[in-house]
């Protein structure tokens, strides 16, 4: 490592990124992220050059200013107007609901199952058998349409912790994904039980969930699709009980350069190809299902 | 005889008019794609193109309803050579040159539905409208070309795709699998696009009776007529709408194949009467002591 100062306030974790923060720490997510990697002279010079103004710059800047006046948000690698993002995400997921799990299997070479297993195992849902006067755990799975995480949570709670009272509420903004999840729940013991319920909701507006009623809030590969992440986090803060757990499973950066090279080539080469072959959608789905 | 002269004609052209084989694009990494050459263009490198070609060939054979994969197969297998040959065939013909200059697109806006319906029977336009109604599609359902790098060749591919419905009208082949495969064989002999040849693998999905009809009747018709007729890509369909179909066929040097719908209908009726007869016979035999 170079002797030059490296200031890192936010820690980058290898794939997959599992961050467990208690509800008190969520407020800190509101703070802007500062990250300065190195103080190389060349980089500073390059940055200085870009601020030189030329005769045509002012016209161009004025045009860009007009474009940026519409509030934009991320959609994969594009910046799109906020009003567009929800409908574009919606359109993507409606069209691929039935092949979503096949897509995930192929794009991650089945490894996503291991990630989700580890995610649930590390959360260890379900009450400890030795707790006296237990209140049943309520778990909220956001953007959990096809039920992957929800079924794993219930299975872990029932079989490992012998807890048959915990319940999971699966919430998704897309009704096609929810019906796919309900279909899959037929193969589980909880299809018609009170332990599993389905709610169509936007994560930024969970009006049907009461304040401080959730013990565990999980969102797996969903937070990238939120138009306004801060609003979703505020809602998470509201619905979680004090001492409740917020768990987010998401893709992050690869620190190893060789692996990063291979990962990027897989993301931009193979993933759109798989999307095209399985679901007929090349760009947007691969971003939503995918990759940084 | 006619087939040999066609290839001889091509080889007799001066080298400047013969086909380019490879383009001069350099290989690139997926992380560093070149900018698109036209709207909707997705530049692919050799590996991506090969993988998409192989994948779409397999997936479209398993699920023939995936029109987008058949389109992708066509585009990824058209280079090198084949799409350039087709473009040069258009350049060699005065009508083809006009089409490349005007670049007409066949959409629901350019093809007025009311005007087409008003045309008399046996015109190209009426046959086309008939086909659209029977299939329940509009001209807008065709995908736009994405994977061909040269902009002009991308238009040639788009024109081929949009004219496919007119080829149905021209040959009188119906829209179900048997007719489609026969039409693809004709297109292969005429345009030499690899996707049309690869589509012939769909014979494995046909019923035995259909398959024997294909081998005995429709494939010989397709190869013979495809090679001896003029290039159908050079027909300016927008100008031929009011023309009589038989007239256009005569000009192109094309014969109509045996009507597939009538053949299948007669065979179906024959099978039905045979079945009724056999049931009556078995009924009589059961009654007799």
UniProtKB/TrEMBL annotation, chain A:
Pfam families hit by this protein: Ubie_methyltran
UniProt keyword list: Methyltransferase, S-adenosyl-L-methionine, Transferase
Keyword Transferase listed: yes
Tagged with keyword S-adenosyl-L-methionine: yes
Protein's UniProt name: 2-methoxy-6-polyprenyl-1,4-benzoquinol methylase, mitochondrial
Automatic annotation (TrEMBL), chain B:
Keywords: Lyase, Membrane, Metal-binding, Mitochondrion, Mitochondrion inner membrane, Ubiquinone biosynthesis, Zinc
Membrane-related topology note: Peripheral membrane protein
Record has 4Fe-4S as a keyword: no
Region called Disordered, residue ranges: 257-289
Stretches assigned to coiled coil: none
Entry cofactors: Zn(2+)
Pfam families referenced in this protein's UniProt entry, alphabetically: Coq4
Ranges of biased composition (kind: Basic and acidic residues): 257-280
The reaction(s) this protein catalyses: a 4-hydroxy-3-methoxy-5-(all-trans-polyprenyl)benzoate + H(+) = a 2-methoxy-6-(all-trans-polyprenyl)phenol + CO2
Keyword Metal-binding: yes
HAMAP family assigned: Coq4
Reported function: Lyase that catalyzes the C1-decarboxylation of 4-hydroxy-3-methoxy-5-(all-trans-polyprenyl)benzoic acid into 2-methoxy-6-(all-trans-polyprenyl)phenol during ubiquinone biosynthesis.
Subunit comment: Component of a multi-subunit COQ enzyme complex, composed of at least COQ3, COQ4, COQ5, COQ6, COQ7 and COQ9.
Annotated family: Belongs to the COQ4 family.
Designated name of the protein: 4-hydroxy-3-methoxy-5-polyprenylbenzoate decarboxylase
Organism: Lepraria finkii
